[in-house]
Amino acid sequence: MIHRIAAALLPFALSAQIQTSQEQTQKLKALVAASPKLPLVKQDLPVQTPFDDYVSSVAVDRAGLIYAFQRGDRTDPILVFDQSGKLLRSFGKGLYKIPHSIRIDPKGNVWTVDAESSVVYQHSPDGKQLLKIEVGGQPERRSNFKGTTDICFGPNGRLFISDGYGNARVLEYTMEGKKVREWSHHGTGDGEMFLPHGIAIDKSGTLFVADRENGRIQRFTTEGKFLGLWDHLGKTFSITITPNEELWIGTQPRTSPNGQDGWILKIDKKSGKILGHIESAGTHSVALLKPGQPVTGARPNQLFYFRPSK
Prior knowledge:
single chain, mainly beta, Neuraminidase, 4-stranded antiparallel sheet, 24 strands, 11% helix
């Protein structure tokens, strides 16, 4: 009897979810339209070595070098360019199944996460492998996407990893690769998640998690205590906090299929208010090439940044 009642209620639950997504999409579009359009224009990066597949993530080091993490087989997954597009080096061949996110820690080391194997690697800037963390715990799924999604570096010398495909949790590790704790699970309540896809941390230790399929950004302490959420910013794919504490996200409407055009948004870190927007075909990853100048990648094989229009 209970199962029959639950089955009967399912269409109503799905209808309510669709209505909520439509309402959130209308609100987001209105908020974006009311926010300042940032005075930036798209500029393709004229890379010497073309990509043969999707650039899933980008990072920029302190010297302004661009690290592109791509999924093609004909070139190395990690490619390092200067700002003219000249290829300086590449590495990581054979290590990845689904390259997903690349980040650079405060010491300049390069960290990557794999969305299938749930393996996290640390490399030196020149490509020497320094550490391998096998997160594990991937459930059986029809899709090969069943692993980790992103990583960030806490002010306490800890790593925080979002494990969004298959699981819905955040894990904390030491910089030496020892697991400290994990928290969260599937759900729609406060502190619960449905595909945590991006993660960032500010200098005060507040964690920002892009709870993508729930259409919100949640905030936590480093111990996993729920602090609050913003549900007006759409289906957020990526989130980053700059050294000067600016918060940027890549997002699109909840009602749009994944991979459609969306926006790169500059967000007030305290209130969640949209401070400015750029229309963008790339929202899966956001880094800053220079202060106020986002760089990203998009399908099928694009790498581009936004430069001042004047």
